[in-house]
Amino acid sequence: MQFNKNTSSGEFNIIGIIIKSILGMAVILGLVFSISLIDLPAPKKEIEKIIPNENFKIVK
């Protein structure tokens, strides 16, 4: 005769799932807020390039 070891009681532990989901969402929100606090460099002047009119061709 073989003995089987039951490692779970078979009950649905909804409280554990709720706690894990709340912790997961807190970690994700913490990452988003910490990334938004980082000051990334941005160009200070507008980049303009003047294109001469002689390069344009009219195609009909």
Describe this structure in words.
This protein is mostly helical. It has a domain of 30 residues. It is 40% helix and 0% strand. The chain contains one helix and no strands. The longest helix has 24 residues. The protein is elongated and about 95 Å long. It starts with 13 loop residues before the first helix and ends in a 23-residue tail after the last helix.
List the defining traits of the structure above.
60 residues, mainly alpha, 1 helix, elongated
Structural class, by secondary structure, is mainly alpha
Q: Which of globular, elongated, flat, extended, rod-shaped describes the shape? A: elongated
- Summed up, the helix count is 1
Estimated radius of gyration: 30 Å
Annotation, overall tally of beta strands = 0
Summarize the amount of helix as a percent range. Answer: 40-55%
Order of helices and strands: H
User: What is the first-to-last residue Cα distance?
Assistant: 90 Å
- Major sheet attributes: none
Strand content: under 5%
Give the structure's gist in a few sentences.
The chain is an all-alpha fold. It has one helix and no strands.
Write the layout of secondary structure elements.
Elements: H1 14-37
